[in-house]
Amino acid sequence: MAAAESYPDDLRYHSEHDWARIEGDEAVLGVTWFAQDALGELVHYEPPEDGSDVSRGASYGEVESVKAVSDVIAPLSGTIVAVNTKVVDEPETVNTDPYGEGWLVRIKLSTPSEVDELMDADAYRKFVAEQ
Amino acid sequence: MKLIYEKSSPGRRASTLPSYDVPDVEVPHELAREEPPRLPEISEPELVRHFTELSTRTFGVDTGFYPLGSCTMKHNPRVNERVVNLPGFRDLHPLQEAEGSQGALELMWRLQNDLAEVAGLPAVSLQPAAGSQGELTGLMLMRAYFADRGEQRHKVIVADTAHGTNPASVTMAGFELQKVETDERGNIDVAHLREMVDNDTAGLMLTNPSTLGLFDEHIEEIAAIFHEAGGLLYYDGANLNAVCGISRPGDMGFDIVHFNLHKTFSQPHGGGGPGGGPIAVRDRLEPFLPVPAIVRDGDDFHLDYDRPKSIGKVRGYCGPFGVFVRSYAYIRSYGPGLREMSEAAVLNANYLLARLKEAYDLPFDRLCMHEFVLSARTLKKEHGITALDVAKRLMDYGFHPPTIYFPLIVPEALMIEPTETEAKETLDAFADAMIEIAREAAGSPDLIKDAPHERPVRRVDEVKAAKRAVVKYGFEDHPNLSAEHAEPRELEAQKGA
Prior knowledge:
The complex is a heterodimer. Chain A has helices at 33-39, 85-89, 93-96, 121-129, and strands at residues 12-14, 18-23, 26-31, 42-46, 53-54, 59-65, 69-73, 78-83, 105-109. Chain A is an alpha+beta fold. Chain A has one domain (12-112): CATH 2.40.50.100. In chain A, the strands form 2 sheets. Chain A has a 6-stranded antiparallel sheet with strand order 1-2-3-9-8-5. Chain A has a 3-stranded antiparallel sheet with strand order 4-6-7. In chain A, strand 1 and strand 2 form a beta hairpin. The two termini of chain A are 24 Å apart. Chain B has 3 domains: 4-57 and 471-495, no CATH class; 78-336, Type I PLP-dependent aspartate aminotransferase-like (Major domain) (Aspartate Aminotransferase, domain 2); 341-462, Alpha-Beta Complex (Aspartate Aminotransferase, domain 1). Chain B has 17 helices and 12 strands. A 7-stranded mixed sheet of chain B has the order 1-7-6-5-4-2-3, sandwiched between helices. A 3-stranded antiparallel sheet of chain B has the order 10-12-11, covered by helices on one side. The radius of gyration of chain B is 26 Å and the shape is globular. Chain A binds chain B through residues 38, 40-41, 43-44, 66-70, 92, 131, and chain B through 164, 388, 404-406, 408, 411, 462-463, 465-467.
């Protein structure tokens, strides 16, 4: 069952439809409801390697639906400290719970100041409405 | 409809072989299978009916309108088949010496010349077997060209509207991929491009008209940016059907072009091939083309392997010869009027666009070339009807769906290419159906959500098909009817017993 549209207030958002949950000097990353809705049900998630570096605005993995293969864009820079293997096994988790069980990676932030450049939920909601 | 295995009856045969009149050969134990293969056993009339019934459940350009964007599903003139079946072409062996295959060599040489004229570039290799292989070959030529000049260039730029084969070819050829964005008129964002191009840039891959069906209004400026930086321009010929005889990629500034003979030049396709992906290049790239080259020497034609800088062969023999014969026959049927083909293709597309732009969203409101991209964005927002739903419902109206969800920069994209071979009545029938579907979306969305209703197969579970594809018969789920190993019933089989 696909989740209902929502953009939680405690997350920060990137214009490529990725979210970040800041937890101290780490962040959990995923794709937004809008992204999973545009892609449709996911059939594959190609995660990055543990320990690899990601940089803001660059691709760190791939998600595939029956429509398309899409890069997942990092909203923040850092080093991968965990990959969600549940999504590797059951990619549709992203559709059912994009902000919870459907998280994609956890990173240790290398440039915490980048957080200030992300949108808050209100700004992202406005951004999505214009899409 | 039953599977052919389910129609199997032990001992039935469609044909019978004469008895052995040669000694048995002992198959080495390790090569022999332990059990005979489970093949369907069926009589000839049942076999004929089975496949005839199957053939009524498929859809092709001979069945109906097939506006699959970027695929150019045009009518394949039957005269091409008559020509390719001439015994001199049909029965020719690929290892036949040049002396005994002058006609075939001349045909290929003439096809090269015609393609060179269409491209506006002097040198052609017919070898690549498909557009994707033409792309890879073209990028290998780029590598060889820069290596020969002692230059190291790593980056190749593609548009964010590019066919998926472009980034794949760039990566396979060992270049680093960069994507340039599309501006609000549907052209390449030239300002963005200027920031990207430097002396590490090997080149650009571009489809023009783009996959949005739009001719890039700054193509000469774009070519100048690359040439000033010492880079090369690659023309993806997927959309060449829009410009034949009107504008030439070489004149636009492109250095390498691939053709899709199976799109533009009417080789039948859609069932998996064979295709043809020749490439044309500027003279400074000619030394690197695949061998053998087909050359004319006085009145003789021969294969020239003496090209020391060649990247080598990219395909067996000279390429897909039957495709060459059909394409050459096709080009000669048009003669100097080839541009009428492209003019009619562009006219048909603009006619359809004009009829549909009120009922669907049009992301770039310009005259289109041979195809155009609509969006079902508003239908999705207001009625929950997606591009996929529209595509499925079109099947109930008797049409092949257009390409959907591509290019990726257009949400809920419907990419429609009517081609030049459709009559106004067909275009009108399709437009009526599309407009009716938009109406149904408002009034009876469930009718669309459950479509197709009128086809042999209903809505398939695409996610399940992608994740758990079943591509073989489930032998283990069905009893082996031939388990008793019945002997063939020769005479009865012929009577369909």
